[in-house]
Amino acid sequence: MIKKGIGRQIVLHYFIVVFVTLLLVEGIFTVVIRTYYYDTIYNHISNHSTWASDYFQKFVRLYAEKDPNYFTEMLRTFELSNTELMILNNKGEVKASSTHFQADKTIQTSDVPQAIAGVQGSKWIGRQPTTGELVMSVSTPLQVRGENRYIVRYVTSLEEVNSKLMSLTVFSVGIAGAVLALVTLFSIGLANSIVKPINNIRAVSAQMARGKFDVRIKGNYKYELGELASTLNFMAQEIVRSNQIKDDFISSISHELRTPLTGIKGWSETLTSGGFDPAETKIGVGIIAKETERLIGLVEEILDFSKLQQNEMKLVIGRVNLKELLQEIMLNVWAKAEQRQIQLQLDDKSNRTLFVIGDGNRLKQVFLNIVDNAIKFSNENSWIELVVSLQDNNQVLVEIVDSGIGISEEHLNKVKDRFFQVNHQGGGTGLGLAISQQLVELHNGKMDIHSELGVGTTVSILLPLIEQSEADEMKEDGDNNLLNGNQIDGRPEGNIGYE
What we know:
- The chain is α+β, with helices and mostly antiparallel strands and 499 residues long.
- The protein has eleven helices and twelve strands.
- It is an enzyme of class 2 (transferase).
């Protein structure tokens, strides 16, 4: 007995389909073979009765109707083997019979009235009233000068034919049963070939659900089952990788938090003890302020990422002068670049004022993070170039190109993943590029990274532009809103949240 499940359903469905098909075939076969046998018998008798009707014209010239042997000769002349021959008058009364049985009543089966009416080879199938035997009778009128004089009626038993038909039916049912059994066995094998892999996949996925992500689905499965197994294995692999990245992140963020906290704690305890001159006190307070800002930055980065993951990031939408934004970013990082003797350049190939619609502070966060990374991972006495160019479909492309250490091909596809860090010793949370990617997408833009190890990195950001007239209109509306104490609320198409 197959237990409940997909296996039983497969076997049951196969069984039902094949059973119904065989039942239909068996029914059609039985009807066709029965019809064939009955029609063969009827055609044989009908042809003979037609010959008898034609020959009767000659018979009446050879034998006189008043001759005592008239009906005897008629029976002998028109007889047919394995068939009872009856000679009836035009009233249906039996005048002679090859069985020498004289019926007391007229024959009233449907073939006789039809023959009286002149129908050639009229047929009736039914059971004999006296014996209950299934018979076929064929009646044909015998005419003399256009007048129905007699009726020749042939009666043959169908019991032997039915017996042969029953044997054929039993034989065909046996074949159908064998086919059904074979198909059932085949369907059980097919069901097992499907259910066993599913059970294996289910067992492994249950272990994964309990947190055992080191297990894998083994087996060379084909088609959808193979794809499902590969997907689950890939999922487990990605979960392991994500857990490893998360663990690395926790370790990294713990270190990042401990360092400024240690500095703050140390200088606060030192300053509390007193006895320092104003210069030393100023240095200590400065360090505390610097480390506090560093802590705030780390916490804000984590909060931003959390908001993005929960789709709770709100953007203050307005028009943004892209060139002014990039120049402001260059001023913000100029001192850091000067310390490492890195040259910053802005190359505006558009030669026009470019406006994008979005949140200026968030766009600044994106570009500032990318330029800061470029400085962090560039060698001394190198350069970083910000290239602005117009693209088709009213878009602007900003490329941040550096000649730094570059990123290996192995790490290039992962740098935008959350918590991923190429160099764990470089500090940070590994969330900067992931946040930047999502912020660019919120502005209906696209961010790509191209890099070659030892050569440098190019980060490309594609953003939609707004026309100058639209920008002026937004500025005018924004100024009016500001005068009224309202926030500028530009609403472009796209998945952007608003405050």
